[in-house]
Amino acid sequence: MSETMHTIMNRMSYRGNYLDRPVPAEDLKRIMEAGLAAPSGCNKQTVSLIAVDDSDLLRRLHQVIRPPIGDTAPAMICVLTRRIVAYRDRLFNVQDYSAAIMNMLLAIEALGYRSCWIEGHITDTDRIGRQMADILGVPEEFELVCFLPVGIAAEEQNRPKKRSFEERAWFNYFLKNE
After folding, report:
1. 175: pLDDT strictly greater than 90
2. By percentage, how much of the chain surpasses pLDDT 90?
3. Does an H or E element contain 78, and which?
4. Any bridge partners for residue 47, and if so which?
5. Of 73, 79, 93, 149, which alpha carbon lies 20 to 30 A from 108's?
6. Cα dihedral angle (78, 84, 90, 96), rounded to 10 degrees?
7. Could you give the C-alpha distances from 157 to 16, 92, 112, 114, 170, in angstroms and in order?
8. How many Å apart are CA 24 and CA 17, to the nearest integer?
């Protein structure tokens, strides 16, 4: 259990440059397997994944990603979702892909790589995610909602300051600390 907790506590978003070292396909597969092992609302399994490690394809994808981020990573994993009604009129695809992404981020850390959850600006009104999906030949019923650059960090990064446990967590009742 201590190895698992170590991975959880040491993982952080990496926004720096990456070393020019390929990520073995075997490691990318292990990372994607971790993502697909995540829970899925009503087992609808709305998440699909594409690992990209071809340098020409990465270059084409990074030409549409603005502002540029993760562009020195030797690989990326693109996260796709489908909006499938799971229970009555409820969709759980956001929860599904969030759980898959977190599992992959932990696997990435455990394997000695770094990454960052890149979602916000690719799902914005400029439809960067759709442009990426088109490059990858993704059918319209899938939405590319996130990508994870994957590689070995080229530089050290400062750990972001987190608010204390006591400011954010309590036992039994909500208590505001003043």
Report:
1. no
2. 84
3. strand 75-81
4. 81
5. 93
6. -30
7. 8, 34, 15, 11, 30
8. 18
What residues pair up with 91 in beta bridges, in sequence order?
85
Which listed CATH number (3.30.2270.10, 3.40.109.10, 3.10.180.10, 2.40.50.140) goes with 2-154?
A: 3.40.109.10
Q: What is the pTM of this model?
A: 0.94
Beta bridge partners of 153: 18
CA distances from 23 to 48, 62, 67, 128 (A): 20, 18, 24, 25
Question: Which pLDDT tens digit goes with each residue over 58-96?
Answer: 999 999 999 999 999 999 999 999 998 888 989 998 999
DSSP H stretches of helix in 11-156: 25-36, 55-64, 93-110, 128-135
Read off the pLDDT of residues 23-39 as tens digits, 9 standing for 90 and up.
999 999 999 999 999 99
What the block records as the tokens of 67 is 């502002």
Q: Which amino acid is at 141?
A: E
Residues 6 or more apart whose Cβ sits within 8 Å of residue 82: 46, 48, 93, 141, 142, 143
Q: Kindly report the average pLDDT of the chain as a whole number.
A: 94
Q: Tens of pLDDT along 2-16?
A: 999 999 999 999 999
pLDDT band at 150 (very low <50, low <70, confident <90, very high): very high
